Amino acid sequence: MNSFKSPVFDSPKMTVEVWSDIMCPFCYIGKRNYETALKQFAGRDQVEIEWRSFQLDPTIPVNNPVKENVYQYLADRKGISYEASAKMHERLIQTAKEAGLDYRFDKAIVANSFDAHRIIQLAKTKGLGDEAEERLFHAYFTEGRDFGDHETLLAIGKEIGLQEEEIKEALTSEAFAEKVEEDIHEANEIGVGGVPFFVFDRKYAVSGAQPPEYFLQALKQSFEEWRKNNPAADLLVTEGAACTPDGECK
In this predicted model, what pLDDT tens digit does every residue of 121-177 receive, in sequence order? Predict the structure, then answer.
């Protein structure tokens, strides 16, 4: 008997690219605000997100033996007291709370984010880029886990579904290091001066952790133009006996 395989219709999606760094507090807030906007957007099923790597402070030593929290890190950089640094973060903690996030800067361990970006790049090849970004943000800002430690990255990678051996390879492979560097280079090329930086279909950009309504406006505008160039399949359907997902057959 001959078998028949039905064709698969691969619907294209509009891409939203986000340059971001794990140690950036506004990047996590921006992620939440974008997600809030996306939930309100009618075409959300035809939009995909791609996380791109960026480093705010590449001068932090890899495997840094100094384990400072965010308050101490900023105090040292600005030459101010620990108490003054904590005071400066009060409004940011409130802004995060308004977005549904719990920031614990007293626990967050400042580290070089390059290897964390390697894990994100690996996760992207498995369709888990957004899961990696979310898990790393939460691990850093809320749980106080050290993303500069390979054992921590190994554990986090396994939590989102990555395999131990591929994680270890990503942390030593030049291939994933190159992907991180390519993203950073491209950010410089297109003029990214700070993160988060959202690029909608390579036509519109939103810089910073803007309120959800700004992201919703950008989604609507970019998607309208994208849809004109990517019209939905117009199929001529011959109706016949069929069953629906609600269990009705007629």
Answer: 999 999 999 999 999 999 999 999 999 999 999 999 999 999 999 999 999 989 999
Helix (H) or strand (E) holding 35: helix 25-39
Cβ 195 vs Cβ 183: under 8 Å: no
Please provide residue 105's backbone torsions phi and psi, each rounded to the nearest 5 degrees: -65, -20
Q: Which structure tokens are listed for 233? A: 């399949």
pLDDT in tens, 195-238: 999 999 999 999 999 999 999 999 999 999 999 998 876 555 56
**Cβ-proximal residues to 127 (8 Å cutoff; 6+ apart), any chain:** none
DSSP structural state of residue 243: B
Q: How many residues does the chain have?
A: 250
Nearest CA-CA partner of 28 in 242, 208, 243: 208
Buried b / exposed e over 108-136, threshold 16 CB at 10 Å, is bbbbbbbbbbbbbbbbbeeebbbbbbbbb
Structure tokens at 14: 């509009």
DSSP string, 115-147: HHHHHHHHHHHTT-HHHHHHHHHHHHHTT---T
The pLDDT value recorded for residue 22 is 97
Of 112, 192, 172, the residue nearest 148 (C-alpha): 112
Instruction: Give me the sign of the Cα torsion angle 31, 34, 36, 42.
Output: negative
Place of tokens 């998607």: 223
Q: What is the dihedral of CA 162, 168, 170, 171, to 10 degrees?
A: 130
